[in-house]
Amino acid sequence: MTNNPPDARQLRTILITVSIALMAVIASVTGLNVAQTHLAVEFGAAHDTVLWIINSYTLTLAALLLPLGAIGDRLGRKPMLVAGLGIFGAANLLAAMAPTAEVMIAARVAAGAGAAMIMPITLAVITSTFPDEQRGKAIGVWTGVAGGGGVLGMFLSALLVDVADWRWLFALPLALVAVALGLTLKAVPDSRERSAHPFDTVGALTSSVAVAGLIFVLQEGPERGWTAPATLLSLAIGLAAGIGFVAWELRRRDASLLDVRLFRERGLAGGSITLLAVFGVQAGIAVVLFPFFQAVLGWSGLVSTAAMMPMALMMMLTSGLAPRMAARIGARATMTAGIALAGAGLALMALFVSAADGYLSILPGMLAMGIGMGLSMTPSTEAITGSLPPEKQGVASALNDITREFGTALGVAMLGALVAAGYRGAIDDRLHGIPQDAADIAREGIANAAAVSDSAGGHAQQLVHAAQESFVDGWQQAMWAGVAVLGALLAYIALRGPKNPAVVAEPALSSADR
């Protein structure tokens, strides 16, 4: 437990510290996406290798979140945060100097391990340090950074690539780590919880295998194919490990890594499902927004990233306002309003998106989406952390983060597949008169259509226009799928969501009807 309660000034410093540390982790999730071509050229790497350089970080991060969050609860949150920042910083320095793709992948795996030490601890420090009356505001800031930090990190990364070199991408997380490490050593108090039970090693191992297996499926399925042997094997391993984890945790009960019985509690179930769906939709929207900006509107990567900033800023702003709203009308009503706004934003984008009208046709929907996500994320996070007892706040934070990672991977896979399928289904009727070879390439995707348009002779403009219109059709299909997901979530939360702002629950299950 924390010894002396920190004063207001120290609390502000703690919040700044964990926000900077979280920003370093989040920025590294999306940063390398803007440098895929540079990585391929620098290392002479195939597309699959480049994807591994990017995905190995998030795969490692997701797999290790739960066990490392639990270890941080026991060994001390400050030492875990310091160690995580050290490992993360060293790994990013190695990545910046990596001579080969293999070294880069190893560095990214190490960075993912360091990030898994950092991310759950940042939220656990807030929930274990801030008094009840200030905790909601602090969690609002944390969720704003977690939700909007990826877009901000991608923008800064795109700027660095444009004005310098792709290796300068690692300067951003290194600078953030240096500041966060100094502030952590100075201001963050140590807190740890004593447990009468030994560490749940079996639970830690099975949870890691389950998360890694299922995330691998979602990351690699679109590339390798959903029926490829590696995909099916990973799915089988992930599901078997997941079932084994649940069975083992039920057997361990109070000595478990994560008491799965607590999912009967409204706050934990509702908060987890909300974050899964909301982050899935957000990540999926990013997948379809960037091709729209670049291939349909013809914008650069930097301008395309900047175009995402209004949605990210709305999300960060309303994440900070959500605790006040939840205190007045309740967590369930706040989450319901947020989900409804996010769904309305998707519907606006689906109804009014147009290649001719460009950015202004989707900006109102993006703003509504950002506001809705901000309102729903903070009370969902509070519901999760408030459902687990104080000695399990590292685990609660890790569960919150795993839910986000799963939602992100699921949203990218599903909405990306819907856009691709909608595009292929729509473009055939628009390719009449196009030379066969060019038409075949154009069917593969809008970027392929743009690349091959020069070989279409007098049909070049027709081919480009057909690809743009077909992409918009696929876009609308994905948007309406997102509306359906959020509509189902809205009904669930309206009926079964937490009724009040989350408070820390006792270990028993007496709060099941809260």
From TrEMBL:
Keywords per UniProt: Membrane, Transmembrane, Transmembrane helix
Main location class: membrane
GO cellular component: plasma membrane
Superkingdom classification of source: Bacteria
Database matches in Pfam families: MFS_1
Annotated compartments: Cell membrane
Domain Major facilitator superfamily (MFS) profile: 14-499
Gene Ontology MF terms in the entry: transmembrane transporter activity
Transmembrane segments: 12-30, 50-68, 80-99, 105-126, 138-160, 166-185, 197-218, 230-248, 268-290, 296-317, 329-353, 359-378, 406-423, 478-495
Membrane topology note: Multi-pass membrane protein
PANTHER family, sorted: EXPORT PROTEIN (PTHR42718:SF42), MAJOR FACILITATOR SUPERFAMILY MULTIDRUG TRANSPORTER MFSC (PTHR42718)
Name of the protein described by the UniProt record: Multidrug MFS transporter
Lineage, broadest ranks: Bacteria, Bacillati, Actinomycetota, Actinomycetes, Pseudonocardiales
